[in-house]
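stuck on this:

***
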Amino acid sequence: MTRHARNCTAGAVYTYNEKKRDAAESGYGTNAQRLGKDSVKSFDCCSLTLQPCRNPVVTKDGYLFDKEAILQYIITKKNEYSRKLKEYERLKRVEENDVNQELNRKQQQCVEQFVKSGKPVNGTVEKPSTSRDAREESSISNMANGHEKKLPSFWLPSECPNAGLAKAKKPDSTIYCPVSEKVLKAKDLIDVKFTLVKDGDTKKSLIAKEARYMCPVTHDILSNAVPCAVLRPTGDVVTMECVEKLIKKDMIHPLTSQKLKDKDIIPLQRGGTGYALTNENLEGKEKRPMLQA
């Protein structure tokens, strides 16, 4: 038997690498690829601007925002609510005017019927039905019931069943978090205080440094790979390892000796961009047609 090279294809087993290569070349199957670091938002970046926070604040659910960005978002939502409320009031007035006009028309019709017949009329005015009217009412033709002069242009927007004025719907004044979709209030935002790493390097800017912040208790470097938490009374960012091993034993703030509660420890969410939602699943999949045998 002749000698084969290392990448021999004469084997009886269809290897994983051969299967993966053939799937990529054929255009069938599911392609999976791990997302890179550039696809994930850093833990100290704003969830709206995706840039490092200058004045970081955190919500009760642990989502980090830049104070200027989140306040601008709240103001924009309030202005939008004011605009929708004015539109709602305008449509409400239009609906009330239409109802009043319809009541006046019916009342005038009742008066005219009373003048002609000399008998009081209660409710709506009913015309005396004839055999021809009965035939037209029972007919399914689109030319009956006075529609003979109306074009059956059902494809026009004005002829749709729901055509007409928009219904007045009162807008919701609640402002929701752009990430968690939960109720968001400006008074619930908590100021966050990051502890800078003291490395003595003054040539590099803060954004250019990979290790920017550290835990004020254990002095561990903070990054996306290290779960963090915010202590509500002071806003200090510590590692979850510090919370589990030190803080939760006595529930005392390690820097100020202040008594803590469970709600005072806010886990910091390590969110991603729109390309990668969270750091828990950093694998992108592309589903393609399956090759049927």
